Amino acid sequence: MTNAYGYLGPAGTFCHEALLTVPDLPGHLRPYPSVVAALDAVRKDQIDAALVPIENNIEGGVSATLDNLTYGETLMIRSEVLLPVEFNLYVRPGTALSDVTRIVTHPHAYAQCREWVQTNLPGATVSEGGSTAAGAAEIADPNSRYHATICSQAAGELHDLEAVATAIADNKQAVTRFILVTKPGPPPERTGADKTTLVVFLRDDEAGALLRMLEQFASRGVNLSRIESRPSRLVRGHYSFSIDAEGHINDHRVAGALKGLKRTSRDVIFLGSYPRANGFRPQVPEGQSDDSYHAAEAWLKDLRQR
Ligand SMILES: O=C(O)C(=O)Cc1ccccc1
């Protein structure tokens, strides 16, 4: 144990803000310059866990996170955090909004403010920064070639910047989902309001492979809360599916779906079962509860012993 958690830094990122809401934080919180650097630090036992973004409600999944969890040495999701994100446009004190032609920020921040930028700063170019707080640090430098950054109020104030526009997100309800990731180990206890994250590689040269994958969930009453296809790095023209299923690996119906996927697909990566941040409890259809499975198993055992 290192008594340290990592996050996409520097201080003042949305990741940092999300991490501060996690209960029982260790003594040290360490910033990393990228999602991949934070995840690799977990793999090398330099930190016990890392908090990284996985999904936002404008762009969908965060590819850097999803792909690293799919192709890197296996890690496990322990919990999730939902953070409403608000974006402001910050400049060095004295710069007017009309002077802004070069913006630097994290691509997800820009993605969520694209219409605002096009409407209000139509000539401006936007460059990719490592994070929103890295953008704020850049703008604080008087020699910077950039004029403005899109970041949170916390990051703007940390660097003594001036907000020339506030609440500039195109969707005012923007929420980002972050995950806390550790080395593999036993999953957290089942709470009844859980989520299971998987990557499934289909036997996609077989007709109906996608339908067969979905049947593993549907036939057991397991609802999916996210499903995204990602191009496979291993075989060109093939895809993997990144999936969040409602329920825990210790629910019989979810375990049944996992076993079915293992039997019928090319490969399955289990990335964790963990409590849902919104506390949502799935509707378990008749016949899919653990009690129903136990009763059916007892019946079968009895038949075999007759
Ligand atoms: O750059 C940051 O502050 C991050 O934590 C990544 C991010 C960027 C925009 C929205 C949500 C997360």
UniProtKB/TrEMBL annotation:
<keyword id="KW-0028">Amino-acid biosynthesis</keyword>
<dbReference type="Pfam" id="PF01842">
    <property type="entry name" value="ACT"/>
</dbReference>
<comment type="pathway">
    <text>Amino-acid biosynthesis; L-phenylalanine biosynthesis; phenylpyruvate from prephenate: step 1/1.</text>
</comment>
<dbReference type="InterPro" id="IPR001086">
    <property type="entry name" value="Preph_deHydtase"/>
</dbReference>
<dbReference type="GO" id="GO:0004664">
    <property type="term" value="F:prephenate dehydratase activity"/>
</dbReference>
<dbReference type="InterPro" id="IPR018528">
    <property type="entry name" value="Preph_deHydtase_CS"/>
</dbReference>
<feature type="domain" description="Prephenate dehydratase">
    <location>
        <begin position="4"/>
        <end position="183"/>
    </location>
</feature>
<keyword id="KW-0584">Phenylalanine biosynthesis</keyword>
<dbReference type="InterPro" id="IPR002912">
    <property type="entry name" value="ACT_dom"/>
</dbReference>
<keyword id="KW-0456">Lyase</keyword>
<dbReference type="InterPro" id="IPR008242">
    <property type="entry name" value="Chor_mutase/pphenate_deHydtase"/>
</dbReference>
<keyword id="KW-0057">Aromatic amino acid biosynthesis</keyword>
<protein>
    <recommendedName>
        <fullName>Prephenate dehydratase</fullName>
        <ecNumber>4.2.1.51</ecNumber>
    </recommendedName>
</protein>
<dbReference type="Pfam" id="PF00800">
    <property type="entry name" value="PDT"/>
</dbReference>
<feature type="domain" description="ACT">
    <location>
        <begin position="198"/>
        <end position="276"/>
    </location>
</feature>
<dbReference type="InterPro" id="IPR045865">
    <property type="entry name" value="ACT-like_dom_sf"/>
</dbReference>
